[in-house]
Amino acid sequence: MELGTNFAARLEPFLLMSKSAKGAAAAKLIQDATAAPGVFVFAELLDMPNIQELSTSEQYGPYFSLLQLFSYRTYRYYLENEDSFPALNSAQITKLKYLSIVSLASERRVLPYSLLLQELKMDTIRELEDLIIDAIYLDILRGKFDQKEQQLEIEYTMGRDLEPGQLDKVLAALQNWASTTASVLEALDKKLVEVAEHHKAVRRETELHEELCAANLKEVQERLKESKQSNRKIGQYPTGGSGAGDSMDVDDPPAEGNVKIRNRNRGPSEAAAAKQQRKRNRI
Fold first, then answer.
1. Spatial separation of the C-alpha atoms in residues 124 and 134, rounded to whole Å
2. Residues 45, 51 contacting (CB under 8 angstroms)
3. Which among 48, 112, 185, 282 would be 20 to 30 A from 41, CA to CA?
4. What is the pTM of this model?
5. Alpha-carbon distance 39 to 3, whole Å?
6. What is the Cα 199 distance to its own chain's centre?
């Protein structure tokens, strides 16, 4: 749930009473509304006819200024113009300090402790942090302490009533924000197109690289296959045909039996001559 969504409902009873309250009763109504717990927006009450009548009253004019103070001004403004307002009680002072933090947060996201202590006229950091913690629990703002850097980092705040004449400034700021946002979106769209084109180019380059690798791998595999087939052909020996003439037959030495057989086949004269020759060899 967004901050401040129930603040308007808290103001409703005071709006009903303002329809019949005049003079002192209307002044008392303003005192009660500015001190009431949970009531932090006052624009509708400020626009009520009976309340507007107080702005021209010398006696009750300060109460109308008091309602303006709580609508869109700060605690510093109160201190600088204290004589122009009725005396504030402790509940009103605390509420005005809450609203002052919201106003400061509308100007800068990071609020140094030194600035807050000065604007809220507080003496110690512990007192300041307790005030901020209470404001967070009341859904007036969201943020976190940076105790190392001594500052409050604002995340979100409720919206305060607009001071007369401030609407034009807000509209100008919104128009400037819209223009800046449009420029940022245009730049982002352009960047997204560039990223998409780059991604497309990278993907295409990757596909071409993968196709080239696949082609190279296929070529290498074919070459290996051809090399294996060639090696197999070289390692085979022919078993007949024209290759028979290339081989040489080596005669085995004749066995002793064969010598004897051959000797038997010789004639008597040949055997005697051979025997005589062997004797000579021995001598």
1. 16
2. yes
3. 112
4. 0.63
5. 13
6. 20
